[in-house]
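Hey all, quick one. A colleague (J.T.) asked me to put the pyridoxal-5'-phosphate job into the tracker so the inputs and the structure tokens live in one place instead of scattered across chat threads. No bug as far as I know, just bookkeeping. Sequence used:
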Amino acid sequence: MALVNIHFLNLQSNYLFADIAKKVNAFKVMHPKADVISLGIGDVTQPLCPAVIKAMHKATEELATTEGFHGYGPEQGYPFLREAILKNDFLPRGIHLDIDEVFINDGAKSDTGNIQELLHWDNFIGVTDPIYPVYIDSNVMIGRCGTFRDGRWTNVRYIPCTAENGFVPEIPKNRHMDVIYLCYPNNPTGTVISKQELRKWVNYALKNDALILYDAAYQAYIRDPDIPRSIYEIRGARKCAIEFHSYSKTAGFTGVRCGYTIVPKDLTVSTFEGERISVNHLWNRRQCTKFNGASYISQRAAEAIYTPEGRQQVQTTIDYYMSNARLMLDTLRDLGYEVYGGENAPYLWLRTPNGTTSWQFFEELLYGANVVCTPGVGFGPSGEGYVRLTAFGSHESTKEALARIKDWTHSH
Ligand SMILES: *Cc1c(COP(=O)(O)O)cnc(C)c1O
């Protein structure tokens, strides 16, 4: 008899974006003429830059020849890309990593989800709240989170990040955490962490023998030079942290699929007997068994981001999104809304007025302004009372959405 992994049955079936789609469809059925603008989905909209397209064409042509054909590549990724990463993303910030510490992935979602399988099932995890749902769900799948009660998993430490604490996560004093997920710049709040605050987490991890899983998917959106773009800017982090990067939001690779994960060689985890095990070694073993690499074309495309033209073109698109964010922030604040994020991240986190719930505000905005947002509570209990807006739209649709929000706000 093939028995099911019962932990999958514990997953909360209502997937946030499916629920949103259902409600938007219901609205469209009732209002077939309405033109709905989404400031909800976390996908990018602008095309790949010319340098990337050129590199992809070139790689494709190579594959069409006997000499240039590439079959299975190294499971860890091609050295040309791993070297470009070290040279461009880390060395300029004084971070010296070894090429064997870089693992090319097919996007950060896979690795942020898969990394937990290296860890014993009863490690206790902590997450900042609200948070990208992949971290918790991937742990639920292995039975690590306990049971779901009142919007929370019993075996997860939720570390609230709200306007009340300035979105600065406070290290819980009363419960030891073994594994901590941090995501900065944050999805969904669009807020960032200072070096000083991040240092507290690194010190906590070093002192308590905990592991930090640091998601830096949005680091390219950081404008403030004092905000860390990598956890390895903090001394000691290579002994306690794994870092995930993605080209999805950096360079529009949501469909191309490529990113990378840093697993330092200094990082170890313990057996019950206290023997220290190299995580780099385990992850390499895992990848060689379960992963056959990102495609050659994707990796050549990613390499092109680091050329002078590529850099400049990618920056132009990031600036494009960030000018949307600026306009959203200014307009919404002028209208009297309490809005956070949007300065070093493509997300804005809006407090719903007058204690309206996330879902209630979502419906009011949809029916009143024909604009879609993402209810904050879908990202965790501390997201209640907020909605997420994204700056990933076109200028035109963003402007139009803001004009509608303005009319709607003034009309009620
Ligand atoms: C978009 C996103 C990613 C990247 O996902 P990919 O699989 O690389 O497309 C990772 N983490 C967070 C928090 C994200 O929002």
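Adding what we noticed when we looked at it: DSSP finds twelve helices and 17 strands in the chain. The mean pLDDT is 96.
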